[in-house]
Amino acid sequence: xxxxxxxxxxxxxxxxxxxxxxxxxxxxxxxxxxxxxxxxxxxxxxxxxxxxxxxxxxxxxxxxxxxxxxxxxxxxxxxxxxxxxxxxxxxxxxxxxxxxxxxxxxxxxxxxxxxxxxxxxxxxxxxxxxxxxxxxxxxxxxxxxxxxxxxxxxxxxxxxxxxxxxxxxxxxxxxxxxxxxxxxxxxxxxxxxxxxxxxxxxxxxxxxxxxxxxxxx
Length: 217
Prior knowledge:
Layout (H helix, E strand, L loop, with lengths): L1 H6 L13 H6 L3 H9 L4 E4 L3 E7 L2 E6 L2 H14 L10 E5 L4 E5 L2 E2 L2 H8 L3 H15 L11 H7 L1 H13 L3 H4 L5 E5 L3 E5 L6 H7 L11
Antiparallel strand pairs: 1-2, 2-3, 3-5, 4-5, 6-7, 7-8
Helix pairs in contact: 6-8
């Protein structure tokens, strides 16, 4: 259902000559998909769970490398349907249970872009969302940053961002990193999250330290 909802309103991505989309979609394993794409598209980023490749001027392809990548691709596919409501890159298509997604291509953001576009610098944004999340969970890990109440009352960008965090239980740490952000032009420059697949559920399932096994003796 996610795939149909996303694909219904998007133009098809233009893959370069030599990249056969139907062949790629039939590949049965993480290793085979990564190998096929790596030979045919330029890579722009790679982490422990996914690799990102340029398709054309407006599209990138995120390919899962393992189960962690599947989970994060599916989160982004879900949230990406609501890119008009949240500051996230659009997701155009998702395939094979999250094995890959086509996403809106963005220019990497710089810290200086935040004050210009969103009216709040990145460091302050990180402090605001960390404090907000800590406060919502009933903790007192962080000191209330200067101007916090004003940002919460007056900044549309901050309010949309904390709504996203609340709706999908997203940790503040990743959102506060510059590497998670890009800029797209939708009639005007907009800051969007380009790496937003880590929810607390995904973290607990795949990244949190596991408790040592307890034996009855």
